[in-house]
Amino acid sequence: MSLIQEIDYGTPPSKSERQVTLTIDGTEISVPEGTSIMRAAMEMGTQIPKLCATDSLASFGSCRLCLVEIEGRAGTPASCTTPVAAGMVVHTQTERLARLRKGVMELYISDHPLDCLTCSANGDCELQDMAGAVGLREVRYGMEGSNHFAKDSDLRLPKDESNPYFTYDPSKCIVCNRCVRACEEVQGTFALTISGRGFESRVSPGMNEPFLQSECVSCGACVQACPTATLNEKSVIEIGTPEHSLVTTCAYCGVGCSFKAEMRGNTLVRMVPWKEGKANEGHSCVKGRFAYGYATHEDRITKPMIRASIEDPWREVSWSEAIDYAASEFKRIQAKYGRDAIGGITSSRCTNEETYLVQKLIRAGFGTNNVDTCARVCHSPTGYGLKMTFGTSAGTQDFASVDESDVIFVIGANPTDGHPVFGARMKKRLRQGARLIVADPRRIDLVRSPHIKADYHLPLRPGSNVAFINALAHVIVTEGLVNEAFVRERCDWAEFEAWARFIADDRHSPESVESITGVPAAEMRGAARLYATGGRAAIYYGLGVTEHSQGSTMVMGMANLAMATGNIGYRGVGVNPLRGQNNVQGSCDMGSFPHEFPGYRHVSDDSTRAVFEALWGRHLSAEPGLRIPNMLDEAVGGRFKGLYIQGEDIAQSDPDVQHVTAGLAAMECVVIQDIFMNETAKYAHVFLPGSSFLEKDGTFTNAERRINRVRKVMPPLAGYADWEVTMMLAEAFGYPMHYKHPGEIMDEIAATTPSFADVSYAKLDEMGSVQWPCNENAPLGTPIMHVGKFVRGKGQFMLTEFVETDERTSRKFPLILTTGRILAHYNVGAQTRRTPNTAWHPEDVLEIHPFDAESRGLTDGDLVAIESRVGMVTLHAKISDRMQPGVVYTTFHHPMSGANVITTDYSDWATNCPEYKVTAVQVRKTNRPSEWQERFVEHHEKSTRILESAVTEAAE
Amino acid sequence: MSSKNETLIRMANQIATFFRPYSREEAVKGIRSHIEAFWSPTMRRDLCILIAKDPDGLDAIVIEAVPCEIENHENA
Ligand code: SF4
Ligand code: SF4
Ligand code: SF4
Ligand code: FES
Q1: pLDDT tens-place string over residues A245-256
Q2: Considering the entire predicted model, what is its pTM?
Q3: Cβ neighbours of residue A48 under 8 Å, at least 6 residues apart?
Q4: How far away, in angstroms, is A70 Cα from ligand 2 center?
């Protein structure tokens, strides 16, 4: 294995279809029109020296190192800014050019410290490379002149080490501007500027602030672009440069960015975004790029543990003892209470292969369909709603599609925080002029960010989504904006007519629902017109859509809108969920729901069952099993007794924590497989140590249905990858499985699941990644779905009546609490809290509008009690006009905040996805933590005790 | 926290509410197939017991839609 080296072509590729032929150094080459001479040369393998150019950025032409000679043209133009022309004859290396380049290099080097041997970028520095490339042998100007590096120089600026992950050393800066441009062009944050003039100029974040205090979101794009050690990863400074690398996939969010895990031995030196990765094309966010330290954190549990009662301390045992204990308990429970008294939960953080195995163990081994996934709590309405209308449970586009959108409609999502790399891509398109509609109770960053201003920000009252989407549809139907040709050809016309009659009723008009949505009717009309007539219009949505009692209805409402306007089935349009966790899509695809086999086929479907029965050798139940909330209800009721949970933390991620913990506490055997002692483990009897994404092979499927490889770069800390642990449990339970590698599990998935028929590790190695459906009809995968025809045949319009949630405000609970997430943290925060990302978000806070704060006598930073009908927690208040009056907001990244102590158990009518986004609360000043939080601390200590280990047997 | 029966009633009524804009015939069909597709046998059985013993609070159309006689009692 060696370090994967990616070619830097110097300038981005041209998208032109027209080819141009020219001659470079005597060789003829054809490239797309608009290509730079530099890129054309690199395509034939000739590297023209360069410093300010890199192919992720538009060319800039400042360093003058890339000069070439062109026959018939005077002077020596820069090859990075000069496009090719037909018949052009270029020379990249002449005596004159060599002399000029040496001169340029001399100037650079005379203001650069010559401490290469001890420099952290030694061997990974383009300045060093270029000095070699141009044959620099001496620096005539001497190193004594005015410079930025000498200890006593007035121009020398201190190192900025404020960012937890990278340093900025101004003494090494060559002012190539790559970082500034990366921050603008790639990330769109515009955090950096060049301050000062001429020789004094230097890069500076914001108004000469330290990085940490600036607008910088620590995406790493500038570090990636910097050709020198000026911006350098702290991990490289500490460990040294890496020696080998493997391509793998970020385990944080549903964007599914590809990274090169750059290693020194078994030590991860850094994660570098991979240019070939289709989801991110070389970009990254702070989580995937830097916040991987949790994977080797000292809190990792590496020894299996058991205990007879959750009152007991944990006892470390051997793998075989833990596995045998778990299996025998499950068998005992089934013998005593029946087959359906146990079940399991798959993880949207684990791989597709692992998820597949867990549901296989439960359906075939345990003999019950009691398997569910935590995707239930986020995107199950997506699956239901899109399946009903379009025929498939997935987003319609690839990420790149947004590059062709004219109107971007963001509903209940916060892409710059939740899905940062896609957010950056979206912002790029918006800076190019696409129009923007944001429907969100909160003024998210996207509404107003550098060079972007939403055409409409519609601050909906939480819980009014369906009234809102119906109002938009009403405008489209009654103002004659329906794309009738599309609807006639692609949808069921009779259903459309029924829908159009329904939606045209005056009760759906913007004027009628103004008082429900809180958005002025004229704004809703304007947004509807823009969506229907602004060109290619794409909907992107998140948990603000799904986590409502009408989540599924809302998904169908958006699908109706897209069908009515013909915004489906080609590039630039579509209806797209932004998935939370990395493998939410995959875990749903892999048969994690109690009513569905892999590939979304109902358990009552005889032919599908026959396929699995033949392969798995067991009779399979044709009845749907229990969903998570129902499992917990049944547990409280005494009928459900055992649960195998792989890589999820339902005691923290599911709503109404007290109900969840009551259910867990009522069970006789809870088996947790995780990398950390999580909240749920406090109620568990068996703890099986999990493996991080760095410790196993497999695949994740991102929000655009892209199957990406996860590659093992270090051995599992506890001895086994998660799929191996499931196999051991299956074997002990009496249902042995025989896979030698996750690739074999994927082969089984392909053999049983039509939409995966052509997927294999060999194909993934060859193509890098592939979007399902991937089968004989689409051997290279499917970037855009529903082209020419909906998966279900005709698109189905659904009637979507608005129904107010049962969770209402009252005199006692006058405010609506809604929840969300922020950039630095991920989901319940188990990983990110164990990284320096806490520098940006040390605790969850309650955002409250100045008006609501004032009427309660609150000032910024006050400790406040937030009380709902089910519970109370305390947080610090942050006064913010991002919220509308009447609505308060928090995140749930820290377990102590217990945001879910106060959320109710109301849920989506179709899928039971919990209604996280609407809770009626009261807020008041307090001076002490809530009772729940005090008990939490006490219980935390008690329930995580581990007995001084008697057994120290290594993993056998 | 709601009791199990309250939860079942609420879930069933929510499904009925979704289908309200449809014709009675379509709604009955929709509710029935939804409950058959997504509810486990134990949940359906509990709902049937409710319908038999204490149907107050349940939307009338749920009672019409849920076929209680064909429930299997195998997983008691
Ligand atoms: S890390 Fe990202 S946001 Fe911060 S300055 Fe660099 S490019 Fe800009
Ligand atoms: S910090 Fe690096 S990328 Fe930025 S101008 Fe200086 S040398 Fe160039
Ligand atoms: S955008 Fe998501 S997948 Fe990409 S690096 Fe960030 S957290 Fe990872
Ligand atoms: S690389 Fe062309 S001018 Fe710098």
Answers
A1: 999 999 888 899
A2: 0.90
A3: A10, A37, A38, A41, A42, A66, A68, A79, A92
A4: 30
